[in-house]
Design a protein that fits this description.
The complex is a heterodimer of chains A (309) and B (90). Chain A is built from 7 helices and 17 strands. By secondary structure, chain A is of the alpha+beta class. Chain A has 2 domains: 8-149, no CATH class; 151-306, Phosphoenolpyruvate Carboxykinase, domain 3, CATH 3.90.228. In chain A, the strands form 2 sheets. In chain A, strands 9, 10, 11, 12, 13, 14, 15, 16 and 17 form a 9-stranded mixed beta sheet that branches. Chain A has an 8-stranded mixed beta sheet with strand order 1-2-3-8-7-6-5-4, covered by helices on one side. In chain A, helix 5 (249-256) crosses helix 6 (267-283). Chain A is globular, with a radius of gyration of 20 Å. The termini of chain A are far apart. Chain B is of the alpha+beta class and 90 residues long. Chain B has one domain (7-83). Chain B has a 3-stranded antiparallel beta sheet. In chain B, helix 2 crosses helix 3 (67-83). The chains are: A alpha+beta (309), B alpha+beta (90). At the A-B interface, helix 5 and helix 6 of A face strand 1, strand 2 and strand 3 of B.
């Protein structure tokens, strides 16, 4: 048994207008571990959304952490996504996450309070994916912590159209062509630029919906710390024709809900999201876009989303 | 009978809905649309025991409709609510 003193250094970031704090062991290079967070750094704050204390495990002690090693914890969810294999557990006073990144055999661990306002991370520093794991875990904490503040992380690609002073969001399952559709808008509409290609934040400000760039943008390196009013949202599906179907009320709500990051089995988090979404759906133009991967799709979609505004 | 007290009636502009997560699959959610009359009945039924006849009576008091028609419509609606898990199972 040994005891080592570890000195932590606080790092402050602000994403979607929400400041948060990460304490990393002194000597850890935050910019190297979190390269996509560079534009999101901010000065010392006291009013943060959440704080996360990160420690490095002795890689010889916890390297083969398994789901069975969490006795008595109820597994709430298991997903395999672009981050890797993720197990979510309910603890007595919150949540625990076990993350095994793709192409790695090191398991990283996260514990968070039920409201995700405070979290502890245990990373395997020798893993080449430790920085990715840290970024992924911060995304998990952040995505749940913002739900109580009229905001949510959305699986979407977002573009900004300067002439409308507004952003347009494209939703859909992976592989539907969200990035392709964004690229078409950028190709034909002057000044149109990508805001985020995978996980922007949607946030209500006095009832008006805004979208913010984040440090999480999937495979596309687009980490912009800017915000724009939302002009419209379209859920894409592949088709042999280009047609837009406007939706409203519960139908619009149902188009956006599947793309939102929320622990659905947590009534408190889920209710907060539903309140925000219901409010969003009464003010934003939303519809289904059946599309081909061609320029005419972008024109049809833009015409529909920009009409009557 | 009683309403499922875990559920909340929500309004989006002129529309009403109830969002219910599936107990078995964490990625499934049901979104029920209610028309104005159904939403009005839901609000009156919240937090109390009621029968189909109670709801039909409320309709008759509020709208120009016969008890027979009201009861038929209410029973049909309550069956949908029951199948959708919108009613308490106790």
């Amino acid at each position: 048994m040994t005891s080592d003193k570890v000195i932590l250094r606080s790092h402050f970031y602000r994403v979607g207008g929400f400041p948060f704090r990460i304490d990393l062991p002194c000597g850890a290079d935050a910019d190297r571990m979190l390269p996509t967070f560079r534009d999101f750094k901010c000065g010392r704050r006291e009013d943060f959304l959440f704080s996360a204390v990160c420690s490095f495990a002795d890689s010889s002690s916890g390297g083969d952490f398994r789901a069975d090693d969490l006795p008595g914890l109820e597994q709430v969810d298991y997903v395999k996504n672009d981050m890797g294999h993720i197990h979510l557990f309910r603890t007595a006073d919150g949540y625990a996450v076990r993350l095994l990144p793709h192409g790695s055999n090191a398991v990283h661990f996260l514990k968070a309070s039920a409201d995700f306002a405070s979290a502890q991370l245990m990373l395997m520093p020798d893993d080449s994916k430790a920085g990715c794991a840290l970024s992924s875990m911060l995304k998990m904490i952040y995505s749940q912590a913002i739900l109580r503040h009229e905001a949510f992380l959305l699986h979407a690609s977002a573009v900004v159209l300067p002439e409308r002073d507004a952003a347009y969001l494209f939703l859909g399952r992976s592989g539907t062509g969200k990035s392709t559709h964004s690229a078409l808008w950028m190709k034909i509409f002057p000044g149109c630029s990508l805001l985020n290609d995978d996980n922007p934040v949607v946030r209500l400000d006095n009832g008006v919906a805004f979208v913010w760039g984040t440090p999480w943008s999937g495979k596309t390196p687009c980490y912009r710390n800017i915000a724009s009013r939302i002009g419209g949202m379209a859920r894409l599906s592949q088709s042999d024709r280009n047609q837009f179907w406007p939706e409203s009320g519960p139908a619009a709500f149902s188009l956006v809900l599947p793309g939102c990051s929320v622990i659905r089995t947590d009534p408190s988090l889920f209710e907060s999201l539903c309140d925000t979404l219901a409010s969003l759906c009464s003010g934003v133009k939303i519809g289904r876009m059946e599309c081909r991967p061609d320029i005419s799709a972008a024109i049809v979609c833009r015409t529909a989303l920009c009409s009557g505004q | 009978m009683r309403l499922n007290e875990d559920l909340k009636l929500r309004q989006i502009g002129p529309y009403y809905m109830i969002v219910k997560t599936s107990g078995e699959r964490t990625d499934m959610t049901d979104v029920f649309s209610l028309n104005e009359t159904a939403a009005w009945l839901w609000k009156r039924a919240e937090g109390r025991d009621f029968t189909a006849a109670d709801l039909a009576q409320w309709l008759c008091d509020e709208y120009d409709v016969t008890m027979e028609v009201a009861l038929r419509d209410v029973r049909k609606m309550l069956l949908e609510w029951q199948e959708g898990g919108l009613l308490s199972e106790d």
